[in-house]
Write a structure and sequence with these properties.
Blueprint lengths: L7 H49 L16 H6 L4 H11 L3 E6 L2 E7 L5 E5 L4 E4 L30
Antiparallel strand pairs: 1-2, 2-3, 3-4
């Protein structure tokens, strides 16, 4: 009578194949998860832009035709309707949220998990920049300040 079973070599080969397949699946899931976080960040920034436009157009808070220019990132981010959004963005991006204001314009940029940055500004621009480094690198501002390349800020604060 013959023993019908698997040899040790056969079992090890099956285990190795299962291990390789699971490694491939886990690697693809990590990439997909990061892309999902990036999509969440982009959606939150779009919502933030809408909230900031409401803030900006409130004559008691922002700069508009009804009052003096008082807009600043600190004022905007401290507002009770804005600060929870900033907290969520900071959690999603490991505190990589950057903001700049120039006169009556503002821009907010967040470093994405996969690559680059996503930036929204007061002119309605939203774009992904494939830069590396600091979130401020994707914003324009004072040409003399580090991380703020001088560009035509009348068009957009997002590079």
């Amino acid at each position: 009578m013959k023993n019908k079973g698997f040899t040790l070599i056969e079992l090890l080969v099956v285990i190795a194949i299962i291990g390789i397949l699971s490694a491939v699946v886990i690697a693809s899931l990590t990439s997909t998860r990061q892309k999902g976080v990036d999509a969440t960040i982009k959606s939150q920034l779009t919502s933030l832009r809408n909230a900031l436009e409401l803030y900006f157009n409130d004559p008691t808070k922002g700069s508009n035709s009804y009052g003096p220019s008082t807009i600043s990132c600190d004022n905007m981010f401290a507002d009770p309707s804005i600060s929870p959004m900033i907290d969520d963005l900071n959690k999603q991006s490991a505190n990589n949220v950057a903001c700049v204001t120039i006169g009556d314009k503002w821009g907010v940029s967040v470093k994405l998990k996969t690559t680059g940055f996503y930036c929204v500004d007061s002119t309605g621009i939203n774009r992904t920049a494939t830069l590396s480094g600091d979130p401020y690198d994707s914003l324009t501002g004072d040409g003399g300040a580090s991380g703020f390349p001088a560009l035509n800020t009348s068009i957009s604060l997002c590079r």
